[in-house]
Design goal:
Blueprint: H1 13-43, H2 50-55, H3 60-87, H4 92-102, H5 111-137, H6 141-162, H7 169-179, H8 183-199
Helix pairs in contact: 1-3, 3-4
Length: about 200
């Protein structure tokens, strides 16, 4: 009697993996292109020199971003199919291991964005854990998210005012635009940051 196939996708596994790689490649390239056009043509007035602006899109940075998205998708699909066939079992462990393997794709991403991606996916991880616990114990997950968001904002504002050296420069600049502190407030924050750096210097 033929054994039931565990993979439910259409076609062979290699085709499914290749399809995932190509689709992720095209989608990430489209997203990167849209962001590049928005930043260069609208905010940085790249329309004054459109050829130079378009050529700047063809770079190692673009290749890193697209490669990261493509590899993460294809590595997940490939490892999931391999585990199904090797273990002859379909359970949550396959997804856990495949997720860990696909996470190695972040090594090809730009080092400056790795931390941002890691924090984003960690936030999604917490969201999944909270929703799972909420369903299991009948908790209102939305209220938990509110309190968690409040705690994160408190910590972020503390770092903004007292430990700016621990923040990404780009995010610190964004908060400056958002809050627009006065000269007196900036002087106080600089003093607090200096005192914090003296107490706990960054090594």
């Amino acid at each position: 009697m033929p054994q039931e196939r565990l993979c439910k996708h259409k076609g062979p596994c290699w085709e499914n993996t290749l399809r995932g790689f190509v689709m992720a490649f095209l989608q990430s390239l489209a997203a990167k292109s849209a962001l590049h056009i928005l930043l260069n043509f609208i905010l940085r007035k790249g329309y004054r020199n459109p050829i130079k602006s378009l050529l700047s899109f063809i770079s190692i940075d673009t290749l890193r971003f697209v490669g990261f998205a493509s590899l993460m998708n294809s590595m997940f699909k490939a490892s999931l199919c391999l585990l199904r066939n090797f273990r002859q079992k379909e359970d949550g462990l396959n997804y856990v291991i495949s997720g860990g393997i696909s996470g190695l794709a972040i090594l090809v991403e730009d080092p400056g964005r790795r931390e941002t991606w890691a924090l984003y996916f960690f936030a999604r991880f917490l969201d999944i854990i909270l929703r799972r616990q909420g369903k299991q114990y009948g908790l209102d997950v939305n209220k938990i998210e509110v309190f968690l968001f409040m705690a994160m904002i408190v910590f972020m504002i503390y770092c903004y005012g007292s430990e700016k050296d621990n923040m990404l420069k780009s995010y610190y600049s964004f908060l400056n635009i958002l809050f627009q502190p006065s000269k007196a407030e900036k002087a106080c924050m600089d003093l607090w940051s200096q005192q914090a750096a003296e107490k706990m210097p960054i090594k």
